[in-house]
Task: structure prediction
Amino acid sequence: MLPSEYFGLSLEHEVVPPGQVLLARQTTSPWVHFIDSGRVVLGLYDGTEMSHQLGVVEGPFWLEAASAVLGLPEVVDAMSDTPVIVRRMPLPAFQRTLATLAPPARKLLQDVSRSQRQQTELAVSRLAMDAEARCARWLLNHAEQASQGVVNVLLNQRKRLIAAELGIAPETLSRVLRHLRERSLIAGSGRNLTLLDPSGLQSLAGG
Result:
């Protein structure tokens, strides 16, 4: 269904190129977005990249409409990952339409939206944990004892998949590994890494 079928309104569509910020955390958008098609990344945007990824969603869907239902600022950043066809509904029109719902239906929608927002806030707080700490913890959890006390980690997954597991962008993972090498905490490149200072990594991971 299109927004017009939900609300009896005719909403013009717009083609948004990849890399466009659709929602910004801690701001209140004047629009409620319906994605006809395309893929959108949710997470934490640092001004240059989506450094921490919460997930990926694909149209057709309403983009983080819980904030509009509750009248609260956005809790995540959203960026187009592919060309996206989006329809924007003015926030006041959206809220006026919600006010016409029967009280039980409106209460149910608010409760579901509140629950979804709480789950998203929890996920965002976990994403905000230092990327180096999460990477250090992952390395320690995947470490294997080799000969003569050497501790190795074999990256048997693509870095893209490891980054997704950690909730960070692949570029962020590469940057963190480079910083760990520069601090002499790890060594090696490619798929084979050596943990030079496991105790230092343990401290970085938070004990």
